[in-house]
TrEMBL record:
It holds the Pfam family zf-CHCC. It comes from Brevundimonas denitrificans. This is Zinc finger CHCC-type domain-containing protein. Residues 21-56 form the Zinc finger CHCC-type domain. InterPro entries: Znf_CHCC. It comes from the Bacteria.
Length: 79
């Protein structure tokens, strides 16, 4: 791959505003995406996907979290 020119414009990663600190990302490309990953912002107000560099930013008015809003998989009897 040829080196990039110093003035080349690189678009910023996609930023998605979310209402909770727990998010899931699959790359958004269907079959062209990446494995589904779950992330937690912890003490920060954003988290970046290690696969696709999407940045999930916490909304200015976040919703309170509970287990129902958890993106983690639940056993079938919990649905």
């Amino acid at each position: 791959m040829p080196p990039r020119h110093a003035d080349a414009i690189i678009p910023p990663p996609e930023a998605i505003v979310v209402p909770t600190k727990r998010v899931a990302c699959d790359g958004g490309g269907g079959a062209l995406g990446h494995p589904l990953v779950y992330m937690d912002m912890g003490g920060d107000d954003f988290v970046e996907c290690a696969y696709c560099d999407r940045r999930f930013v916490l909304d200015a008015h976040p919703k309170p979290e509970n287990e129902y809003l958890s993106p983690a998989a639940r056993p079938p009897e919990a649905h």
